[in-house]
């Protein structure tokens, strides 16, 4: 179990990150939540983790597009809990547009949040993990780290980048008992997926039902959305001793999407 260990989960005020944070807390880890949202909603989730799982949970409002704030989040966690044993780089955003109309600022923001933030957080957390001789780094990639879809240029580029960064870090840290893996979900029903439906309707000229059935679930042979708890279960497993020889892997949970 992760009792007396500490996990920092970026983008954990919602969706997959929140499920991963709760899964790691259930396994005994103290948690640093991160992400945006209404202060009262975040406080409710933080307090619920402490009450339900008997661990300590803190919140960092660090913006994953700001390298200084990312380093500050890791330093704060180390000061508060003594170490960062598990780092989950999960924060991510989406934007759907043809390349020639893709706003330059959106490209930069997606590369910063979905890719560079993982580099900055790893850079800050690895020295502590090396000192203690144990660590787990888990990056939330995507089926879009393996295959592409049109109109998601920045997202697909960032996620392919995360897959490469994961492999590189795994090799660098292989003899330090620090594993580095990514999880690649297909479509998971979260606010991120729900909120891209209007833009996909516009970009492809489709109704909401057509986007759900003909675009989203069309890619997924099981015709079912992945659940956030199914993603969280993989993260918990990757932190276990049973997974100590799994490193540099890209683990798909996509209903068969990337088998096609
Ligand atoms: P979500 O929108 O529910 O959650 C995203 C989280 O990131 C939120 O907590 C949000 O506050 C946080 N966030 C956004 N910008 C941030 C910033 N600048 N700094 C700090 N936090 C920030 O989305 P989700 O679906 O749970 O996505 C989580 C991860 O899973 C993302 O990396 C996403 O690309 C990936 N993913 C999602 C799906 C899916 O179908 N939902 C599929 C594959 C991969």
TrEMBL record:
NCBIfam families: PHB_DH, PRK12429.1. It comes from Methylobacterium nodulans (strain LMG 21967 / CNCM I-2342 / ORS 2060). Belongs to the short-chain dehydrogenases/reductases (SDR) family. The lineage of its organism: Bacteria, Pseudomonadati, Pseudomonadota, Alphaproteobacteria, Hyphomicrobiales. This is 3-hydroxybutyrate dehydrogenase. Pfam families: adh_short_C2. One of its GO terms (molecular function) is 3-hydroxybutyrate dehydrogenase activity. InterPro entries: 3-OHbutyrate_DH, NAD(P)-bd_dom_sf, Sc_DH/Rdtase_CS, SDR, SDR_fam. GO terms for biological process: monocarboxylic acid metabolic process.
